[in-house]
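#struct-help
A.M.: can someone run this one for me? Single chain, 452 residues.
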Amino acid sequence: MDPSGSAPEPAHSGRTTQSGAELSAAERAEYERLRRAAGMRHKGLRRAGAGILLVLTLVLAPLAVVAVWVNDIVSDTDRYVQTVAPLASDPAVQKTVTDRLTARVVKKVDVRAVTDSLTKVLEDAGSPPRVVQGAQALEAPLRSAVDTVVRRNVERVVTSDAFRQAWEDSNRRAHAAVVGMLTGEGQGALRAEGDSIQLDIGTVVDQVRQRLVDRGFDKAAAIPDSERTVTLFRTEELGKAQDGMRLLDILGTWLPLVVLALGALTVWTAPGHRLMLMITSLGVSVMMVVLLVALAVVRRVYLDAVPVGALPPDTAAAIFDTFLRFLRDSTRTLLVVFLIVALTAYLYGPGRPARWTRAMTHRGATAAGRTLSGAGLRTGSAGRWLGTHHTWITGVAIGAGALTLLLWNHPTIGGVVLVVGLILIVLALVAVLAAAAAEPDRTARGTGDAVP
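D.P.: on it. Structure tokens below:
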């Protein structure tokens, strides 16, 4: 008997040809050899095809993440405003704006002319030389006093809720200019000038200038309209970067779908679906780590490229980190998602830790179900149905969780953990209810007989 329980075919009973003649033993052996060779070639082709698809999936995965960020974050006004809004409350940015505006106002106040006029008046009035020299020494204290008063008023504007609201409003209005800068088209608050990217802070300048004039600093009205920009970034590769951004913007809608399709096709093509799912998930996870490293490198390049006198390093870092935080968050979320997928694929495999985990889970669910059944909470036919269809129920639960993450607008790591937790709760509940379907064995007291 073979393992299947059927009697082995006699050695003389070979397969029959289309003409009805039986194959000889030699012909049957040759037939089996050719069939195994054909099967091996078929598997070889499938492995080769899956390998090519896997490489394409892994190469395109980081580009798809960046493309989604470009298309969804930069091209969406609400999302863009949500991205840049924290800059108005960032201490480094507030300090830079305050320092710049204070310096420009104080520069317009001619303190030396004031002290020179006072000195001349005292000399004409015949004041003692000591008094005249004291008037000349007032320049530094007077300049410091002017700086202190101006800075205090500028800080009140920059740290106020009105400034934050004005910041959001101006960014919302200028969003079209942001898109134009990234694509090399149009002008606005954030724009490309030659090989540099500049931020127009005209709205802030107008508010500060008006507030200082209202407080009696008439010289503040002389703040020039020409000094209303801050250079954020300068590079000779701006043209190439804009070409890349335009391409990613075009592909932003379709590239993620193409990557998902390639990944699914990779798993379907491979002879071992579960193993290829685990390999693909781990590969995408590695590519997400590569993308995070690349963002760290780009951050260093950006900080090195900022002009020495344009922005303090902490302000430049705050701008970069704030603008790209959603891209980093999405990358980390995908890293966690695919690690969970890889772990799930492994736990369904034949490995010893996977078998042990499944056995312990089954024992725990069985024990909990028997406890419920012993307490009189038997699920009966419903529990037996759950036990019979547990494979389908598991697939539906996992599919529902995956669909939830796909439809979720920008899920976070916390959201992923929540969805996975709910799936585990559902599967555990199904297992316990299925185990509670049967009545427990009870030992009859005094007889030692098992009562069904």
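A.M.: thanks! The first strand starts at residue 190 and ends at 193.
D.P.: also worth noting: The first helix runs from residue 25 to 74.
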